[in-house]
Amino acid sequence: MLETVEKVTAFIEQYRLLPAEGEIIVAVSGGIDSLCLLHILHRLCGPGKQYPGVTLHVAYLDHRLRGAEGERDAERVAQLAAAWGLSATIGSIDVPALARTEHRSLEDAARAARYRFLRQVAQGRLIAVAHQADDQAETLLLHYLRGGGLTGMVGMMPRQYDIIRPLLTLTRAETATYCREWNLTPLEDASNNDPRFLRNRVRHEMLPLLESLNPGIRATLLRSAEVTRVDLDWIEEQVTWLWPRIVRSAGLEALALDVDRLWKLPPSLQRHLLRRVTETLCAGQSPLELRHYRLIEELCQRPADGEERILHLPGQLIAARRLNLLTVERRSVKGEQRVFSAAQETLILPIPGRVVVPGTGWIAHAGQLGGTDLEQMREALAREDQAALWQLLPSRSHTVYIDSESIGLFLQVRTRQSGDRIQPLGMVHEKKVQDVLVDQHVPRAERAQTPLFFSATHCVWVAGVCIDERVKLTSTTRGIIRLAIESTTDIDAR
Questions:
Q1: What spatial distance separates the first Cα and last Cα of the chain, rounded to whole Å?
Q2: 33 CB contacts (<8 Å, ≥6 apart)?
Q3: What are the residues facing 251 on neighbouring strands?
Q4: Which residue from 41, 139, 290, 333 has the highest number of Cβ atoms inside 10 Å of its Cβ?
Q5: Spatial CB neighbours of 297, under 8 Å, sequence gap ≥ 6
């Protein structure tokens, strides 16, 4: 089955799904697809393999929908991970109780619980899930049924924030064949045939009916999604350009928007920007539907009389309008305490964009290089012409340039916390940020005020001190991000 592995490897390379180094979390249910995913990644990742710097960690969640059977499956996944020399985290949650508590359908509650668990295990690292091409076709039909707009019409992406999908290039038949060829015995989950779940009815009833009308319906759905993705990509570029002009401040639990500037946009861009705002607050999955966009639009149209007006939205979101500011905030999960000072807050830095880092006196900037400058730098990098690079990228302690492929759509910025680590440029191992600051003779008073820039997986820049080895520019660099910090006192003096 080398052909299947080569197909997955090419897909991983095309979309840069795996980091150069680090641990990724592999979501394993024990079924055909997840078993195929784990086996392929195990063949590709680790010392002496194609991705020697990547390690795997297995994560399994028992939804308590199948009683003792679910417990046995959890034990078998743990045994499999141990047999393959992999670490694992096995979790359990009462999904029926969660569905009642959070007023969700059983299917929605199971999905929410699964991703909540995976992100608790990942703690910012990438999560590999086993969605394949047939899942994509089913997802597209589900979105059509629910009315998902353009984003629903393109389905699942190879990478969405911290989620990667290496098997989207395979069909269910191919993953099943792979398991047979390698004598992998998948676990049977009876819930995959449970008609209470809408996806199962789409898989077992709707798709066969559509195939009787069009035998190539799956390929047609995927082809339609690819055509639509071109239009969505253009809109996403416009939203990225508009983001720093509309978003006044951005944190992990709240974002504030300029109402006047938002309202001057065409309705399409208004809604796509609001979708990205809510995606940012809801781990990459916006809960908004058409009626919610209309409610937000009504909120923005009301006179700015100084009175705060509040709108409750799904996904534990609250939109509040006061004067010319629209704030969208994620409410804390029941029982969760929000007890951090402004100086400890983690901010989201879009690319391009800028944010004021509370309690530091610094403004963080990020920008994407393009045009002639980018082409000249690519040529200099390909030639390894250091003199030309120094001329194009002048060395300044408060400005650095990193490989854009090593990060996602945004960065996170905050001050140092205990346990933070970075792999300084030129080094093969990580060091504690605290040790780096001491080694570089950064005064003690300044260490707590130094901004740190993070990707989804690791620290990429200790501002003014060093960048991470994993984001350096190389001869294969295709895109370049410029990061900078600027003193607020310099802004005030202008």
A1: 64
A2: 130, 131, 132, 135, 167, 172, 175
A3: 347
A4: 41
A5: 267, 270
Residues near 263 by Cβ (< 8 Å), separated by ≥ 6? 270, 300, 301
Q: How far apart are CA 289 and CA 294, in angstroms?
A: 9
The beta strand positions in 288-435, using DSSP E, are 309-313, 317-322, 325-330, 347-350, 353-357, 362-368, 399-403, 410-414, 421-422, 431-432
Tell me the three state secondary structure of residue 371: helix
Farthest CA pair distance, the chain: 72
The owner of tokens 């923005």 is 300
**Mean pLDDT within 333-339:** 35
Is residue 360 within 8 A of residue 346, CB to CB? The reply is no
Residue 126: how many CB atoms within 10 A of its CB?
23
Average pLDDT, the chain: 85
- Tens digits of per-residue pLDDT, 150-195? 888 889 989 887 899 999 999 999 999 999 999 999 987 666 677 7
